[in-house]
Amino acid sequence: MHFITLSRMMGTKGTEIAKRVAQELQYNFFDNESIEEKAREMGFLDDIKEINDKGPPPLKRFFSFRAEASLDRLYAVIYELARQGSAVLLGRGGNMLFRSISYAFHVRVIASQETRLHNLVERSYTRKAALMLMEKSDNERESFIKFAFKRDWNNPELYDVVLNMDRVTVDVAVDMILSAIRRRELQGHSGDVTSFFDMMELSVKVAASLAEAGFPSSYISSFVDEPGKVRLSGVVQVPWEKSAAEQAARNVKGVKSIENKIEIAGR
């Protein structure tokens, strides 16, 4: 299985490029609609809609652990979709979620404000409306990546290729991505990928369960080193919290064993 993630600024025709690449390679194409459909099947739709593409309001981040749990469930949905085979993933921080997979390729699509405005006006937006939508979209997507991954959405080091659409057509952009994919040695075995997704999906489900139980990642960290085997670390104030955190992890389907390395403060 191979994966292409595509991050784009509004008005760059990035969505069209992603769809064309998926069609040419006969890969699955996953966007917000695909994610929400899978989230509905998994019972996580409310969580996904709460996160959306912009991250939660600041007050909710600081005074509720639900936002973190919802984010972890978003990751679980994306990993579950990825099990279906080679895919192009549009947005949602895919380049960060798949950064440890050597056979994933990460693309960023940008353009100047004037090019973006021109493209949106061609789609019947007024210039004023287009400017407002662009600013809103940029702020929301940048906020989401900062909340979810603590990274700068615009950092070119997060991508393998950055395409500036000021002087590049959609056809040329698609050809450039296809050429890079076909020349690059994106090698991996389905068994390796399946095992990876098993562990990553279990990891985020455990993290979501811990957050909902009042143990966010800032307090308790969870790791899945082997399929079904969970390791907990962190510091709590009293012994019952250590037991409660372990029980929250144990309640997650797929957890076979737990190594509880949580420490109790003052001991």
Brief descriptors of the model:
267 residues, alpha/beta, Rossmann fold, Histidine-containing Protein, Chain: A, 2 domains, five-stranded parallel β-sheet, three-stranded mixed β-sheet, 11 helices, 8 strands, elongated
**H/E series:** EHEHHHHEHEHHEHHEEHE
CATH names the topology of the largest domain as Rossmann fold
The domain tally reads 2
Q: State the total count of DSSP E strands.
A: 8
Helix content: 40-55%
Distance from N terminus to C terminus (CA atoms, Å) equals 47 Å
Give the structural class.
alpha/beta
Strand line-up of the largest beta sheet: 2-3-1-4-5
Shape: elongated
Report the CATH superfamily of the largest domain.
P-loop containing nucleotide triphosphate hydrolases
Strand content: 15-25%
Q: Radius of gyration over alpha carbons?
A: 20 Å
Per CATH, the architecture of the largest domain is: 3-Layer(aba) Sandwich
* Poorly predicted ranges: 59-63
User: How many helical elements?
Assistant: 11
Largest sheet: 5 strands, parallel
**What's the average pLDDT?**
87
| Overall CATH class of the largest domain | Alpha Beta
Description:
The chain is an alpha/beta fold and 267 residues long. The protein folds into 2 domains: 3-183, Rossmann fold (3-Layer(aba) Sandwich), CATH 3.40.50; 190-264, Histidine-containing Protein, Chain: A (2-Layer Sandwich). It is built from 11 helices and 8 strands. A 5-stranded parallel sheet has the order 2-3-1-4-5. The protein has a 3-stranded mixed sheet with strand order 6-7-8. Helix 1 crosses helix 9 (170-183) and helix 7 (113-122) crosses helix 8 (127-149). The protein is elongated, with a radius of gyration of 20 Å. The chain starts with a strand and ends with a strand.
